[in-house]
Amino acid sequence: MAHASLADHVISFPDALPPAVCEALIARFEASTDQETRQRDGGHSFVQLDITRCWPDQSQLLMQLFASYFARYREAVAAEFWPPAFAFENLRIKRYLPNGRDAFPPHVDVMDHAAAKRFMTAMIYLNAPAGGETVFPALGLSIQPQAGKLLAFPPIWLFPHAGLPPRASPKYILHTYLACPGPVAATPSR
Asked: Domain span at residue 72?
């Protein structure tokens, strides 16, 4: 990809997951007792469930799906220097309610040493609420949720993004990161 802009590195793939599978995941999430509330004052607010830990029967299948789309992403952006080995962070399903509080304000996904190993993020929208867009203010992009659409992009400082609040019904997403395996080690300057 010669002379690609940063916006060219934010890619959505429609129909990555069939609508019936999206609906089944939402129903299973709503029936689960393993939900965790995540809130930070002045920051994000949502409820999540760790699929990798709680639903191992679904985790492997979904990770394979994400892996196939990460490969498509790598090809689409002609990523010559993709890490030769990588690992998935736990796959999570997240729900944002239209309650005036649930959202994820502008942020990047690599802000500390623990997250520094992340090199890709991806989410699959499980439904299509009014609102709930993923926006990249610096790039002028707004991605509308659509059931089954996968969105992939680098999690670094060049890609600040926000998850806007849904307006009338909950928003559900599947989310994971690709990360370099093992501890992050400092490399000497060249």
From this structure: 8-179
